[in-house]
Design goal:
With about 60 residues, the chain is an all-alpha fold. It has a domain of about 40 residues. Helix content is about 90%, strand content about 0%.
């Protein structure tokens, strides 16, 4: 286990390159925009299903 951790740290130091600050900022904006759009889409679908279920039960109960 210790060898695995040491090798993982070595690989991170030697083989992984981090993006620049500007690229990180751009990617953060992209993730934020898509997260907001996905949340709005989920809210919309939830609202539509809620209305459909309410309508169905109103018809069922009469």
């Amino acid at each position: 286990m210790i060898t695995y951790v040491k090798e993982s740290i070595e690989e991170l130091r030697n083989n992984v390159t981090l993006p620049s600050r500007a690229e990180s900022s751009n990617l953060m904006v992209v993730v934020a925009v898509f997260s907001i759009l996905f949340a709005l889409a989920t809210w919309g679908v939830d609202s539509i299903f809620s209305e459909l279920i309410t309508f169905y039960f109103k018809l069922l109960i009469g």
